Each structure stands twice: as structure tokens, then as C-alpha cells.
Amino acid sequence: HRRVGLTGGVASGKRPVSAILRELGAVVIDADALAREVVEPGTPGLEAVVAEFGPELLTADGNLDRPAMGRLVFADEAARKRLEAIVHPLVYNGIVELEDSAPDEAVVVHDIPLLAEGGPDRAAGFDAVIVVDAPAELRIERLLRDRGWTREDAEARIAAQAAREDRLAIATYVIGNTGTLDDLRKRVVEVYDAITT
């Protein structure tokens, strides 16, 4: 496989890029999505969370009460470590399974929102790194328009993430997302061709 890291700051447009990569034949592995899947109702992961933290973390319909869990681990470092000790190995196993089951010739894309935050060593583990890039002001506009955030929240989230320069520093390919979806698709196809040829 060719192993590719995909990253970009909040509201840069990573989601449409990963959707286009999937259409082009890439196997996209999204650790955030896996982290949700491993604690769905009926999973050993959810059973382990309930055994560790108690049934009060379930909603009436048997789902993990994410806001309650979030409040608990946000306030308590030890609780967060206990949760991660359950979830992280399950996510890691899921990633390994998906990677192993991908066809040999496939491009395997790891969607990692905080890849730049992991430092250059983390990025160096990939054959290539794609960074989806858009100026902060445009990303703030998208957060206000598409997610109903306040400007203050949007600016705080962007400030908390890696600086644009740090993200661009680990990029093998930069996909600028400032135009239309057609513009974006053309650029993703160019990058995919470059990776696969």
C-alpha cells in the first residue's frame, strides 16, 4: 500500500476531500469515526465503558451519552486516561484490520485531524501527507455559516490547533480549498494521480 496522511484545520474542507478520494478508489481510514463505532450499542467497547464508568453514562435508548462522558473526562485527567485505555486499542485494531484488508495496490488514506500537532515524526510515518488548506477567515466564515458557531468560538478553535505554517511544513501535497467543489475535485484528482503514478 501507499500510506497517505490527510489533515487540515477545522472547516478547511477535509470531509469533501476524503469523499472524493474514496470515489477515486482510495481506502480512507477515519480514526474519529472508528472511535464512535467501537462504542456503539452492542459492542464490547460500550460494555467495557459501562463496566468502568457505570450505566449512568448511557442514554435512555442505550447509546453512550457523549455530552456526559465529555463532561466527565474534561474535568478529570485520570478518567480520560481510563477511557482512552479502552477506546484507543479498539481503534488501533480497527485501523490495522482496515489497512490489512485493503487491496495491495490501494492508496490507504489516514484521515488525522491533528497530524501536524503530532510533530514531524508522526508525519514521517507516511509515504505522503496531504494538507487541505484554506485561509483562517474563510474557515471562520464556514463555521459561522455551516455550523452556527459564534465568531469567538471559531477563532478560539482555530487558535488552539496547529498554525497554518506548521501544517504546510509537513505537506507533500497541498490542496487549497477556496473555490468551488469542481475546483476542489480537479485538484484532488491531480494529487491522487501524482500519488498513484
Descriptive account of the structure:
- There is one protein chain.
- This protein has a 5-stranded parallel beta sheet, with helices on both faces.
- The chain has helices at about 15-25, 30-35, 45-55, 65-75, 75-100, 120-125, 135-145, 150-160, 165-170, 180-195, and strands at about 1-10, 25-30, 105-110, 130-135, 175.
- It contains 10 helices and 5 strands.
- The mean pLDDT is about 95.
- The chain is about 55% helix and about 15% strand.
- With about 200 residues, it is α/β, with parallel strands linked by helices.
- The longest helix has 25 residues, at about 75-100.
How are the SSEs ordered, and which strands pair?
Layout: E1 2-8, H1 14-23, E2 27-30, H2 31-37, H3 44-53, H4 66-75, H5 77-101, E3 107-111, H6 119-124, E4 128-133, H7 136-147, H8 151-160, H9 164-169, E5 173-176, H10 181-196
Helix pairs in contact: 1-10, 3-5, 4-5, 7-8
